[in-house]
Amino acid sequence: MAGGGIAGRLYRGEVSINFVGRQKLWYLLSGIILLVSVVALLVRGLNYSLEFKGGSSFTFPPPPPPLRATSPGGDRERRRRRHRAVHLGTLHQWTVQTGSLSTAVTEKVAAALDHAFGIAQSKMSIQLVGPTWAARSRRRPSRR
User: Fold this and answer.
1) What angle do CA 48, 55, 103 make, to 5 degrees?
2) Domain boundaries, given as residue ranges, for the chain
3) Model pTM?
């Protein structure tokens, strides 16, 4: 089950690591990590998502890769390129987030995304998060 490496030797009890004897080292490392975290929080602040800031979100499937109609290499080259596929990895959807928009501007953005990427507006999921809900979600819950 366990091999001949350090993990196997630890499992069989052939080797031990003195964690308790190095407690000052572990406290120091924990303190450094905590200090870096607090400084980063104070310097950079929190990065609120759309649910906390309010705004609009446009989610749609990624556009198909562009196809070339002609190739300078002749028929043989054209046949070889026609069967080439582009793998988009694990990207199943794209999301564009904006600030708060009016209904008319939202429709213009959806039309611009449709024009730019060739994605029908019927395939887009548009979510509008109002500033009232976003402000309420940032407040602390009241104690009862």
Assistant:
1) 180
2) 6-44, 50-138
3) 0.47
